[in-house]
Records
---
Amino acid sequence: MGAKKEYIALLLLADEQENMIDKYLENGEMFVLDDDGIKAECVVTKEADCIYELKNIAVLPEYQRRGYGKSLIEYLFAHYSDCNVMFVGTGDCHSILSFYNICGFTESHRIKNFFIDNYDHPMFEDGKQLVDMVYLKRER
């Protein structure tokens, strides 16, 4: 996990509580997008045969809305040639859900009160408190 921790500031953009990141960082595979400097990163875990989960994806704020996140997701599907389905969990936030929809993800299920039960402080995105975890999936 040591080398992966050097990207903790970037990881914290997408998941602002470090102990939550620690739960998946050691078992996850990290990808860093470097385009004349680091622009984005993500962490993926293998959940079962042919099933993966995108645990964290973050793009530096000054490079958001330039296609880096989408490019990283497309790379993951090329990299994991055995991937039949990829899940991602996120907050119920329109801008984030729209990003994943553009990337080909559709809603799978929800975990009620995830952000209330698992974080030590209220979480907000676009001015809205996050409560439920929205799981999306993309099938090959």
---
Amino acid sequence: MMQTPVLIKMGDLMTDDEFFTFCQMNDTLDFERDSNRNIIFMSPTGSSTGNTSSTVLGEIYFWNKLSQLGYCFDSSTGFLMPNDAVRSPDAAWIQKHRWEVLSDEEKEKFAPICPDFVVEVRSKTDSLKYLQEKMAEYIANGCQLGWLIDRLEEKVYIYRPQKELAVVESFGQQLSGEDILPEFVFDLKLIQ
């Protein structure tokens, strides 16, 4: 059964700091916040989805370890987007110079930055439409490259600013990090 996460309408009842504290006090639960400041309750991911996310993040990590061009983040990381949403992609990467200008205090909370690269992995219960809207939000907030990996249909939707959505129709191919992650190649056979 496809579903969207549970949304609790909050308006301006919590500041950014209060939302961060709320999340820390309830650290056994996963939350995001939309641009209207509504709290979104996220369910834990299934094992297959978690394995896919970890595989992708692992490959990004090893590429980044060699290139030393930026910083990698897992699905537990919240980012405060320019539109006021707090999002936690399944995998994210930020260029070194963009991350290093943030203060230590900003890095300890939901960093006020949109990642340069994000990955979302669709699980069996995820609504494709919801995830597509989330990917469009990343791009609208400054993300330069995004991959929505649809495990159910074995497709990848590739998002870039001011470019048409590209769709990779099978997991028998490789994805390129393009100019954002230079020389990074992800073999989709790793997640078949």
